Amino acid sequence: MAVKAKRYYPSGITGGPEIFEAMEKRAKEVRKELKKDKQMAESALAQITPEGQNQPPPEGLAEFQSRLTELKNRRDELLRACGAGRQSETRRHALIPKISQIEEKLEAVRAKVQNLTLELERIELQLS
User: Fold this and answer.
1) In whole angstroms, how far apart are CA 111 and each of 8, 61, 116, 119?
2) What H or E segment, with its residue span, contains residue 8?
3) Of the candidates 94, 76, 88, which has an alpha carbon nearest to the alpha carbon of residue 2?
């Protein structure tokens, strides 16, 4: 999934939620392009008349069909990447409060360690 998502990773952005926004925007743009190509391929296939089906297929029909399949696969891939980006964003928002709670606990532990260190040094001085 990471390899596929890398294709949508925006250049010039180093971190933060704007990555997902830019990836989603790019995925939507690519999806629009692919949808347009798909519609063109489908309209070309629809123009083939039943009378023409008894004749050998027109040149490029196999190419159109393979391109249509490729476009559908690409669309599905983009939808999955877009969904993964949204899920990551949701998970990130859910973790923000937990991170702040952990930082508060860590700060409290650091303060206790500092107090214990000072107390230990005071006891060592009294014993010496």
Assistant:
1) 44, 73, 9, 12
2) none
3) 88
Reported as type and span, the H/E element at residue 29 is helix 18-46
Counting beta carbons within 10 angstroms of the beta carbon of residue 122, is it exposed (0 to 12), middle (13 to 18) or buried (19 or more)?
exposed
pLDDT, position 59: 76
Helix (H) or strand (E) holding 28: helix 18-46
Which residues, at least 6 apart from 86, have a Cβ–Cβ distance to it below 8 Å? 20, 24
H helix or E strand, kind and range, residue 35:
helix 18-46
> How much is the pLDDT for 112?
94
**Positions of E strands within the chain:** none
Q: What is the pLDDT of residue 25?
A: 82
Q: What is the pTM of this model?
A: 0.35
What DSSP state is assigned to residue 93? H
What residues does each domain of the chain span? 2-94
* Digit-coded pLDDT (tens) for 100-117: 899 999 999 999 999 999
